């Protein structure tokens, strides 16, 4: 276990906000986690992975906890499937690379998404037609009320679009220690999103799909190792059919996707049409290849990012009557 005091969070958030935390702790086992919860019972706590989906809005006056448990192992195998339990601190993309090398299908569309396995379940990360929930079988956690390990079934997790029970009813109650994924030995591919299929040979392997997804992502999204960002800043709004019809009568070229719960409109399109592509606030700017992403062009402050996000929300609201919801979490 490692505990540090008054540390810079600059290396711990992909937006590269230069703020500080009162304490930072790494835990390498459930016992160490339990110890930390007892020792720091009275101060605010925040669990993070790579800090790739959050914006630190100011210094954090509490303890930030990070799992350094990063192993994966097969826990069950049937004729068609393999169940892999991956610990919370394992970098998601490293896990996906290993699964692709094993020729297992299920997570390859999520290649190159920044972040770690535990956070991927909290956020139900998604890309190119699949979401983490599609492959999650169950989640192992430490219950902070009893300090006992427990298992949450897929149904217990209440997964939704970039959403789960861990962001709502159970926020603060469970600390995810590992996630069990159900992977397929047979080709079960999701290639219908955008131009993914065109980029692939017939009968693609998981590695073919992974490589194509990485190429597409690199052409649209900033590399967090080079440019500070937290991926999509807003969620794509889902509106009622009537709202979409009204908008389509005014904007016949508006792209839209039918969902079970309504009509999904690309926030990127709304932001571009609302004239926000060149908006800046200090060093915070809209990413030129994908306006859904806010980038830190150098020394953006949390205030710059929040101001820019608010300007975008106001312009989209004014022009389309749609209130964009943040995907990025403000801390
Ligand atoms: N578009 C524009 N202008 C642009 C760029 C895009 O109008 O400059 C419109 C186009 O109509 C395009 C549509 O936006 O067809 C969708 O764009 P894209 O396929 O790039 O995906 P997205 O909806 O912007 C979502 C996820 C991404 C994920 C991609 C691919 C959300 C909030 N974002 O973006 O996830 O990688 O689909 O599946 O759902 C993330 O969550 O951080 C993230 C990057």
Features:
331 residues; Uridine Diphospho-n-acetylenolpyruvylglucosamine Reductase, domain 1; Uridine Diphospho-n-acetylenolpyruvylglucosamine Reductase, domain 3; alpha+beta; 5-stranded antiparallel β-sheet; 28% strand; 3 domains; 4-stranded mixed β-sheet; Uridine Diphospho-n-acetylenolpyruvylglucosamine Reductase, domain 2; binds uridine-diphosphate-2(N-acetylglucosaminyl) butyric acid; globular
Distance between the termini: 24 Å
Biggest β-sheet, characterized?
A: 5 strands, antiparallel
Mean pLDDT: 97
| Overall structural domain count | 3
Number of helices: 7
Shape category: globular
Strand order of the largest sheet: 6-7-12-10-11
- Name of the CATH first level of the largest domain: Alpha Beta
Q: Write down the Rg.
A: 20 Å
Helix content: 10-25%
Strand content: 25-35%
Low-pLDDT regions: none
What fold name goes in the CATH topology slot of the largest domain?
Uridine Diphospho-n-acetylenolpyruvylglucosamine Reductase, domain 3
- Strand segment tally: 20
The ligands bound in this entry are: uridine-diphosphate-2(N-acetylglucosaminyl) butyric acid
CATH architecture of the largest domain: 2-Layer Sandwich
Q: Please write the string of helix (H) and strand (E) elements.
A: EEHEEEEEHHEEEEEHEEHEEHEEEHE
How would you classify the helix and strand content by structural class? Answer: alpha+beta
């Amino acid at each position: 276990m490692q505990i540090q005091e008054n540390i810079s969070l600059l290396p711990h958030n992909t937006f590269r906000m230069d703020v500080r935390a009162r304490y930072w702790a790494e835990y390498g086992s459930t016992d160490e986690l339990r110890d930390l919860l007892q020792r720091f019972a009275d101060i605010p706590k925040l669990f993070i992975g790579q800090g790739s989906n959050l914006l630190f809005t100011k210094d954090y006056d509490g303890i930030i906890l990070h799992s350094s448990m990063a192993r994966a192992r097969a826990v069950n195998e049937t004729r068609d499937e393999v169940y892999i339990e991956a610990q919370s601190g394992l970098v998601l993309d490293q896990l996906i690379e290993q699964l692709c090398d094993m020729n297992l299908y299920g997570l390859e569309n999520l290649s190159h998404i920044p972040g770690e396995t535990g956070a991927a379940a909290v956020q139900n990360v998604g890309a190119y037609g699949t979401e983490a929930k599609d492959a999650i079988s169950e989640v192992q956690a430490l219950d902070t009320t009893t300090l006992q390990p427990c298992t949450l079934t897929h149904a217990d997790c209440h997964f939704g679009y970039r959403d789960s029970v861990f962001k709502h009813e159970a926020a603060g109650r469970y600390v995810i220690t590992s996630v069990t994924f159900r992977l397929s030995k047979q080709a079960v591919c999701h290639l219908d999103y955008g131009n993914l299929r065109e980029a692939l040979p017939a009968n693609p392997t998981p590695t073919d799909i992974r490589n194509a997804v990485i190429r597409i992502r690199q052409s649209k999204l900033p590399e967090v190792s080079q440019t500070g960002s937290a991926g999509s800043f807003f969620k794509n709004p889902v509106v009622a059919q009537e709202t979409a019809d009204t908008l389509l009568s005014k904007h016949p070229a508006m792209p839209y996707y039918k969902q079970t719960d309504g009509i999904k409109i690309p926030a990127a399109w709304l932001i571009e049409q609302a004239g926000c592509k060149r908006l800046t606030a200090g060093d915070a700017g809209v990413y030129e290849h994908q306006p859904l992403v806010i980038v830190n062009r150098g020394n953006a402050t949390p205030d710059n990012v929040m101001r820019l996000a608010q300007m975008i929300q106001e312009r989209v609201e004014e022009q389309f009557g749609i209130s964009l919801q943040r995907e990025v979490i403000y801390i």
